[in-house]
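Lecture notes, part 5. Sequence design as translation. It can be helpful to think of inverse folding as translation between two languages: the language of shapes and the language of residues. The source text, in structure tokens, appears below.
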């Protein structure tokens, strides 16, 4: 029997030495180590052997198996290296003295405006918070006063993941975590909560000039004793006049969101058509930009803050729409198009 093993080993070595590429090697591997391969076949003849012989024969076959596998691995590396070498030889020659033709990249306009807004709010004492894009139902809905089966859930078509989590449909999903993060310094040290949290949101909705299924919002919150609507209006006005560097026509109208009371819609006069009406503003002359309101007592309570003692405002700025208005982009879909031709028009003026 041992002579059979030696014979097979010799045969394998002969075949291996004449292999020229990886596909031939794979066929040889299968013909020796595969289910019906010659090494596997050797074990089938063991039935006729005594127990003692079985033991030593089995050991010898296993050694052969190991040696064949090792040689195949070595040969694989050798052939791969040869292949790379061949590819290098086939490459056209490079002239390293040629001047480089590099075009300068630019930041995406959303990044520019997001940074600009962050700068504006930072200068007014706000912290900038980062938050996950995958959140729980509790974060996105329940903790902001939208319990299960609440009709307000229909306002947002949510992408659910198979594990029960969801893609954040609104930056309000971070409100509870931010309130909890800063409640100690609010209550114990009297430091007001002032935070903004920009983020990407996802909604399963039909797209048009001013609706995308992936867009950016920037949420903001301020909580302290005696915060009122006038504080909210002051910060909104300051932010808009800083972003646009000119007076912008805005209007505030009542709006319903379960996490604010009272709630408002802050609309901006459409800068694409100058308020005349166009497809970007659905021919109304106005664009919904920044819903806002006074934080609902229940939301404060769920964040661990006593609504009898503290009040606050929150807003959910439509950052992508703000970018449209700032740069006169009439179709929001251009911003997600990935087209360098479109994007390279915007300079790094917020750097
Ligand atoms: C909200 O998402 C609330 N969470 C905002 C809020 C926060 C209200 C805090 C009160 C207090 P809404 O669904 O309206 O609200 O979205 C807010 C803004 O995001 C809109 O005004 C709009 O500017 C932008 N937005 C909403 N959906 C889209 C979309 N599909 N594409 C582009 N921008 C959108």
């Amino acid at each position: 029997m041992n002579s059979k093993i030696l014979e097979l080993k010799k045969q394998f070595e002969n075949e291996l030495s004449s292999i020229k590429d990886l596909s031939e090697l794979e066929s040889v591997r299968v013909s020796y180590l595969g289910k019906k391969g010659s090494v596997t076949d050797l074990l089938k003849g063991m039935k006729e052997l005594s127990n003692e012989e079985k033991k030593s024969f089995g050991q010898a076959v296993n050694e052969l198996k190991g040696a064949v596998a090792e040689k195949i691995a070595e040969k694989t590396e050798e052939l791969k290296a040869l292949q790379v070498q061949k590819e290098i030889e086939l490459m056209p020659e490079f002239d390293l003295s040629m001047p480089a033709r590099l075009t300068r990249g630019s930041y995406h306009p959303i990044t520019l405006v997001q940074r600009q807004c962050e700068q504006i709010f930072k200068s007014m004492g706000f912290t900038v918070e980062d938050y996950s894009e995958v959140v729980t139902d509790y974060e996105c809905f329940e903790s902001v006063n939208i319990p299960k089966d609440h009709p307000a859930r229909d306002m947002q078509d949510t992408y659910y993941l198979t594990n029960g989590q969801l893609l954040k449909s609104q930056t309000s999903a971070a409100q509870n975590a931010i309130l909890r993060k800063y409640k100690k310094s609010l209550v114990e040290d009297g430091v007001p909560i002032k935070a903004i949290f920009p983020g990407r949101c996802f909604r399963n909705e039909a797209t048009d000039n001013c609706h995308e299924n992936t867009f950016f919002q920037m949420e903001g919150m301020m909580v302290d004793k005696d915060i009122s609507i006038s504080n909210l209006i002051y910060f909104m006005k300051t932010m808009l006049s800083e972003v646009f560097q000119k007076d912008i026509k805005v209007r505030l109208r009542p709006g319903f969101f379960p996490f604010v009371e009272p709630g408002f819609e802050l609309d901006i006069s459409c800068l694409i058509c100058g308020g005349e009406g166009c497809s970007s503003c659905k021919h109304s002359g106005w664009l919904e930009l920044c819903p806002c309101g006074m934080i609902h007592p229940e939301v404060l309570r769920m964040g661990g803050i006593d609504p009898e003692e503290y009040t606050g405002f929150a807003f959910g700025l439509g950052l992508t729409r703000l970018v449209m208005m700032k740069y006169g982009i009439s179709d929001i879909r251009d911003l997600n198009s990935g087209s360098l031709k479109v994007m390279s028009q915007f300079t790094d003026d917020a750097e």
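The translated text above is only one of many valid answers, since several sequences can fold into similar shapes. Residues 96 and 102 are 15 Å apart (CA to CA).
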